[in-house]
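Suppose you are handed only these lines of text.
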Amino acid sequence: MPIKIRQPFVPITEVEHAAFCKTEDQLPAKSLAEELAVNVRWQEIPAEYLHYTPEELDQRIHQARRKLGKSVTVLGHHYQREEVIKYADFQGDSFLLSQEAASRPDASYIVFCGVHFMAETACILCAPHQKVILPNLTAGCSMADMAPIEDVEDGWTDLQEALGGHGGIIPITYMNSVASIKALCGRNGGAVCTSSNAGKVVEWGFQQGERVLFLPDQHLGRNTALKLGIPLEQMVVWNPFRRLGGNTPEQLRQAKMVLWQGHCAVHTRFTVKQIETARMRYPDVTVLVHPECTMEAVQAADMNGSTEFIRKTINEAPAGSKWAVGTEISLVNRLSINNPDKTIFCLDPVICPCSTMYRIHPAYLLWVLEGLVAGHVVNEITVPADIKRDALVALERMLALR
Ligand code: SF4
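From them, the structure of the protein bound to iron/sulfur cluster can be written out as follows.
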């Protein structure tokens, strides 16, 4: 079996992440030139877009949208900053938005204010005549980047060799992964899952085989498996930088869950200590976190669930209730503004937006919209036909479980 030595790397997003962390309540709107002054490497954009004030951007975006009419649909993920999401025709999580785009064939152009894997998913689900646009091509996802397809293909081969043939292992990938990994799952009897249906999909995986390879978020995988009653002793972590992921063949044979060593830089910031502090401050607070948080944080919280679950639960909660929330700050701030009769705050006192979602500045949105007005499609996201076909198989297996 070949031994590959690779150097771990610190993604640029980790560096950037700190650049936009604040201790104030809100992140103020700025021109793109001011944002770029912290020395981040975002996509280059024509110079005139750098210096528009937030007011000028607002006026020009409305003007472009009026000219484009129904030919364009703007989608906004819940984690987008306020000065971007206000232009969205639809807000939602990644899968909901992709389905929304696919159900609007009138819109020839889908401008996805989110991150790269979301635009790819929209491209897989949309009709061939629809073009999907990502306003800033550097808006990736640090978690998805922790599972490059080359590493996953190598790991998949090594796992099968170690387990003997197929080894009864079913690959399941979280929506937050590149299209080629979704395709690998489709080709190998696996499926895609979201944070809302991970339990159902993993359960299905165990009906198809003896064990599951869960990608790319080890925390969602672990939290989901624990809920299904799989003990920690039957889980191993696959470190792509080590031979056999850092496991012995015997450990792999004993494992029910093989967890790819990826994580979300935003959700792993939430700690048990923060939960204890919130409870000391408000003894009647309910702590609600996302399952991308660590096992320790999820177990210390009162509730956990997907972005849509968090929104629904808090929006429907009685007036006067108090919520300490462990998810992306733009969503927490929006929930707090939209529910003034409740006390809603982020568990982490340092305000850190998802640094890659944050790369969608209104200047980028304006740039792609004005491109369309001028007849140019800027930043189109495409997925090769074979990847699209196999990824769709994995997505359809998930949809069949509803
Ligand atoms: S919040 Fe985490 S998982 Fe979601 S896009 Fe940002 S880095 Fe990726």
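What can we learn from it? The first strand starts at residue 72 and ends at 77. Residues 16 and 355 are 6 Å apart (CA to CA).
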